[in-house]
């Protein structure tokens, strides 16, 4: 067959350890035989980040900004142990953090569902996608201890002159603690745009919640900005019959638990931190969770939500057999190819990505899967077979 052509390059960000191994295999056996793959390649593997003083990460993010669609492999975020393991010049920052700052984006985490893999919440039949606001609040707060007899104020200044003063608390009856946190209107606005854009792209209803009955000014601002931004999307949501609900966080939790899933749950920073772990756990394995960074002006970076699966990589390096789940990394590729195809009006490319997704899901549904999924799988008449890393990819290729 003639290979599918691409008009615009895809930004490809390679990574580390076991996912770097998966990356190469996925390309070789699932994509390159069918697609005349046109990528602009950036090696974000830790060695190359160190060699280039991490400029490669910045360059890759700028390329994502330029071309609009990127696919990223998991990467090591160095810590002290990695410093000596890789003899690094510096403890380089998290590449994901760098890319997110440059694209000013929001991360959406979505589970991949397969028949036979039961959610721990049985009524969740469709994916719940979590959007977490990744700026401010308690994550960049300052706090302090306060002694008995001290008073603490919230003070604002402009050009050295005091412009406001509110008493937080008078600690007359004993010592305690205080905390000051902030957010930016611009960041909340970007977040709202990214969320509504994602919902339209995926035809998903949106639920957004804060605690504005208690936090009248702070959370009230989130509510107000979301209402303003939604004004720009209202008509398109109505045309596409997509709902947007603003409610209180307690009510949102209750609604989500009762639901069948199939929604975008938009969370403030702390809520998203907690709820994304709850939702991810409910759907099973980390190997089935995808993630996409969407910027407010519509640039996309697709990846798997898991890390570089270090423990498996060390086994692989010792020549031992591994059974690493490649589903989320395959879906990072299909997500990116599909988006590239949509933006370029390349229906063949979109069609290919959809077929690859279907081949992947039906491989699992048919009983061939990696070890992490075996204990989760139960389907009448099918005894699951544990595949090693390569055998799973080959099974997908065969179906494809
Ligand atoms: P991890 O790579 O996600 O792996 C944690 C454990 O989860 C694995 O040991 C494995 O459990 C299971 N797991 C995750 N993905 C799997 C898959 N595809 N197939 C099968 N099992 C899977 O997290 P980590 O070990 O905490 O971090 C390793 C490295 O990844 C770190 O250097 C970290 O900086 C980096 N990281 C990168 C990203 C990113 O680039 N987005 C995100 C998170 C972490 P078992 O060992 O029990 O089989
Ligand atoms: Mg968390």
Description:
The protein is α/β, with parallel strands linked by helices. Among the domains are: 1-106 and 301-400, Isopropylmalate Dehydrogenase (3-Layer(aba) Sandwich), CATH 3.40.718; 142-180, no CATH class. 42% of the residues lie in helices and 21% in strands. Strand 1, helix 1 (17-31) and strand 2 (39-43) form a beta-alpha-beta unit. It starts with 9 loop residues before the first strand and ends with a helix. The relative contact order is 0.16. The mean pLDDT is 95. The protein binds NADP nicotinamide-adenine-dinucleotide phosphate and magnesium ion. Residues 273, 277 line the site of magnesium ion (MG). NADP nicotinamide-adenine-dinucleotide phosphate (NAP) binds next to helix 10.
User: Which spans have pLDDT < 50 for at least 5 consecutive residues?
Assistant: none
Distance between the termini: 14 Å
CATH class of one domain: Alpha Beta
Tell me the major beta sheet.
10 strands, mixed
| CATH arch. level architecture of one domain | 3-Layer(aba) Sandwich
- What series of H and E elements makes up the topology? EHEHHEHHEEEEEEHEHEHEHEEHHHEEH
Shape assignment = globular
CATH superfamily of one domain: Isopropylmalate Dehydrogenase
């Amino acid at each position: 067959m003639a290979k599918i052509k691409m008009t615009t390059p895809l930004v490809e960000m390679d990574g580390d350890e076991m996912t770097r191994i998966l990356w190469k295999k996925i390309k070789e056996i699932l994509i390159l035989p069918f697609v005349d793959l046109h990528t602009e390649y950036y090696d974000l593997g830790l060695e190359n980040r160190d060699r280039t003083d991490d400029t490669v990460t910045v360059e890759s993010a700028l390329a994502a900004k330029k071309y609009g669609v990127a696919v990223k492999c998991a990467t090591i975020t160095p810590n002290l142990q990695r410093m000596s393991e890789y003899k690094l010049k510096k403890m380089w920052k998290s590449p994901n953090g760098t890319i997110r700052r440059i694209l000013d984006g929001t991360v959406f985490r979505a589970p991949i569902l397969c028949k036979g893999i039961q959610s721990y919440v049985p009524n969740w039949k469709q994916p719940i996608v979590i959007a977490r606001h990744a700026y401010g609040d308690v994550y960049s707060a300052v706090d302090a201890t306060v002694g008995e007899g001290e008073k603490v104020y919230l003070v604002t200044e402009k050009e050295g002159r005091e412009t406001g003063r509110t008493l937080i608390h008078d600690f007359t009856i004993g010592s305690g603690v205080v905390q000051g946190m902030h957010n930016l209107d611009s960041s909340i606005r970007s977040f709202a745009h990214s969320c509504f854009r994602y919902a339209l792209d995926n035809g998903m209803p949106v639920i957004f919640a804060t605690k504005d009955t208690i936090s009248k000014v702070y959370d009230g601002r989130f509510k107000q900005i979301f209402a303003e931004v939604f004004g720009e999307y209202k008509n398109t949501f109505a045309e596409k019959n997509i709902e947007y609900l603003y409610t209180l966080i307690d009510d949102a939790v209750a609604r989500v638990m009762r639901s069948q899933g199939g929604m975008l749950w938009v969370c403030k920073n702390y809520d998203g931190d907690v709820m994304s772990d709850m939702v991810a756990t409910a759907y099973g394995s980390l190997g089935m969770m995808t993630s996409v960074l969407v910027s407010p002006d519509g640039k996309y970076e697709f990846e798997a939500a898991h890390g570089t699966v270090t423990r498996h990589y060390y086994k692989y390096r010792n020549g031992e057999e591994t059974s690493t789940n490649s589903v989320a990394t395959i879906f990072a590729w299909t997500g990116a190819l599909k988006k590239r195809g949509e933006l370029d009006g390349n229906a063949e490319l979109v069609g290919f990505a959809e077929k690859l997704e279907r081949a992947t899901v039906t491989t699992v549904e048919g009983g061939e899967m990696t070890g992490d999924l075996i204990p989760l799988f139960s389907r009448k008449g099918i005894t699951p077979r544990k595949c090693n890393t390569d055998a799973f990819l080959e099974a997908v290729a065969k179906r494809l």
